[in-house]
Amino acid sequence: MDETAAAVAEIVAELTNLTGSGSLDPDAELVELGLSSMQLVRLVTRIESQFSITFPSDAMNAETFASVASTAAAVDAIRHRAQG
Fold it and tell me: φ and ψ at 67, to 5 degrees?
């Protein structure tokens, strides 16, 4: 798991009270991990704060937040756009 995915996994683990973010399957559905809609809002705000990004409206969809891997990929894409 890369650095971004590890950070997202850690936030998800905290929000869902799962122990050991390293044991999270990055491709597991966040809903299957127990993430509620309210926790999803918290996930977005925590990621935006931690990575100093803002998710654009077109990224606010089920595909972006389907899993740790898809969320981390979106974070990396937003950071890349901001740098470039």
Answer: -150, 170
